[in-house]
Design goal:
globular; 109 residues; 0% strand
C-alpha cells in the first residue's frame, strides 16, 4: 500500500521547481548583453549547469536540495556576490532557498 504524500510537501517541491525555472530564465537574461558569439555561450554556462541539475534531479528531491544549496554557495564564490547584499540575495540566495525547499520535501517518506 502506497503512502499518500501530504499536499503541503508536494506544494513545497513544486514551488522549488518553479523557483529554479524562474531563476534559470533570470540568469539567461544576462547572456543577452553580449553579441551572439563566444561571449554569448560563455554567459550561458551557469544556465546550463542549473538546467542540467534540475533535469537530472527531477525525481530525486534530496539530491536536488543538496546540489542546489552547493551551487548557491558556489555562486557566492565564483561571482563574488558577498560584496553586495542585493546581489547576494538576487543571485545566490534563490538556489539556496530552492535547495532548502527540496530538502524539506525529502522524497516519498
Amino acid at each position: 500500500m502506497k503512502k499518500k504524500i501530504p499536499k503541503i510537501k508536494i506544494n513545497l517541491m513544486n514551488s522549488a521547481r518553479v523557483l529554479i525555472i524562474l531563476y534559470i530564465l533570470f540568469i539567461t537574461l544576462f547572456s543577452f548583453d553580449t553579441s551572439f558569439g563566444i561571449g554569448f555561450f560563455i554567459h550561458l554556462i551557469p544556465t546550463a549547469i542549473f538546467l542540467a541539475t534540475l533535469i537530472f534531479t527531477w525525481k530525486k528531491p534530496k539530491l536536488a536540495g543538496i546540489l542546489f544549496v552547493l551551487e548557491g554557495f558556489g555562486t557566492i564564490i565564483v561571482f563574488n556576490t558577498y560584496r553586495d547584499l542585493f546581489v547576494l540575495f538576487t543571485i545566490s540566495f534563490i538556489p539556496i532557498l530552492a535547495g532548502i525547499l527540496f530538502l524539506i520535501f525529502k522524497g516519498k517518506k
